[in-house]
Design goal:
It contains 22 helices and no strands. By secondary structure, the protein is mainly alpha-helical. Helix 2 runs antiparallel to helix 3 and helix 16 packs antiparallel against helix 17. The N and C termini lie far apart (about 135 Å).
């Protein structure tokens, strides 16, 4: 009985001693804290080296820090960043898994895993990581934006838009989130709403002209041509916008809609110099020339457009208008017929075919053209008026 009691007592004392020995003594604790402090200093140095692009030196410093404090999650996150920059994605993901083991609530470790998954084209996994990062750090806009951008890449823009809209008020001073919302609204054809939110973005980031560019285009699509042209006129005087043919084209179209024909012609001429291979630009230039009754300039522009895109329906329609102005009816008929052939649903070209037949003294054929146009588009104003005119004269 005594020996049994002795054994039990010895086991208790041994267990207590083991428990005591598992805890670091004061000296060991001091050394651990000192190593952690030194590791943090080295981590700051490694981070500075990383930010200046000195990846090899940063890696060397980081390795020294990890020897001192291997359980520091921030060191593993920085190591993952370096690996991502170097294209070593598997190594990066291993480091991020380690970081999450030591710091399960570190949102950046989830965000960077999302980046890795996107590089691997695993969008669903990337979305899960970005969403988790955003939930763990809701005040970090980059995580939310990454989640939304991934949804768009997955053709789920209908989910991305409300996701961002719900956070616009939360990020009350953020231009990027409003810019993203505006662009998604533009894709859905909600131009008036896009104008409102893009205007807010341009005010919040008044020093960044790219926001004003998108506002100007939203205004154009919302048919607010005067304000759009005002913004575009200022933009195209600055680099790099001064080399943008598409912006000069949009500006010219705004000016054309506002009946500022000569200004529109100058804008289209500039656009044609910047992008001489665009049939659309030459077609717009021909349109302004016709408005200004400069038939020779219109002829030259249309020849360019036809040479670039011989089967563009709009161009043949415009050639038909030019031939009418030149009183070359048979050639006008050929052009309008070509335009109608290229687009059987276009009632304008069909009506113009009928109009030329009427001018050529063949009202019976013109009646058939107008009637066919009304079958394609019931209530078409041009077809109705032309048909009524023929019937009245008969």
């Amino acid at each position: 009985m005594r020996s049994k009691w002795c054994v039990t007592a010895w086991l208790i004392l041994f267990a207590f001693g083991c428990q005591q020995s598992s805890k670091p003594n004061a000296k060991q604790q001091a050394k651990k804290e000192w190593n952690a402090a030194r590791a943090n200093v080295l981590a700051s140095l490694a981070r500075d080296q990383y930010q200046t692009g000195n990846l090899d030196k940063s890696r060397q410093t980081l390795d020294d820090a990890m020897k001192l404090d291997p359980q520091n999650a921030r060191l593993h996150v920085l190591s993952a960043k370096i690996s991502i920059e170097q294209g070593k994605l598997e190594a990066a993901e291993n480091e991020l898994q380690t970081a999450r083991k030591f710091a399960p609530n570190d949102a950046e470790a989830y965000y960077l895993s999302g980046v890795v998954c996107q590089r691997w084209q695993k969008n669903q996994d990337a979305l899960t990581f970005y969403r988790t990062a955003s939930e763990k750090a809701p005040a970090e806009l980059a995580y939310l934006m990454a989640e939304a951008e991934t949804l768009v890449a997955m053709n789920r823009a209908d989910e991305a838009l409300p996701l961002l809209q719900d956070k616009v008020v939360y990020f009350e001073h953020s231009a990027p989130i409003r810019d993203a919302v505006g662009q998604l609204l533009m894709q859905k054809g909600k131009y008036a709403e896009a104008v409102d939110v893009l205007r807010q973005a341009s005010i919040l980031a008044e020093d960044d002209p790219s926001y004003r560019e998108r506002l100007a285009l939203a205004l154009y699509y919302n048919k607010q041509y005067v304000e759009s042209s005002d913004i575009l006129s200022r933009l195209v005087t600055q680099e790099p916008f001064a080399k943008r043919a598409d912006l000069f084209t949009a500006l010219g179209e705004c000016q054309l809609k506002a009946n500022r024909i000569r200004e529109a012609r100058y804008s289209f001429e500039t656009a044609s110099q910047l992008d001489p291979g665009s049939a659309k630009i030459w077609l717009n230039l021909a349109r302004t020339a016709l408005e200004l009754r400069d038939l020779n300039r219109a002829e030259l522009a249309l020849r360019k457009a036809v040479a670039i895109e011989p089967n563009r329906q709009e161009t043949h329609l415009m050639v038909g208008y030019l031939r009418l102005r030149q009183d070359r009816l048979n050639e006008a008929l050929d052009s309008f017929t070509k335009a109608s052939t290229l687009d059987h649903t276009d009632t304008v070209s069909l009506c113009m075919v009928g109009y030329v037949f009427e001018k050529l003294g063949k009202p019976d054929i013109s009646l058939k053209c107008y009637t066919r146009a009304l079958k394609i588009k019931p209530g078409d104003q041009m077809a109705s008026q032309l048909l009524a005119g023929v019937e009245l004269r008969e």
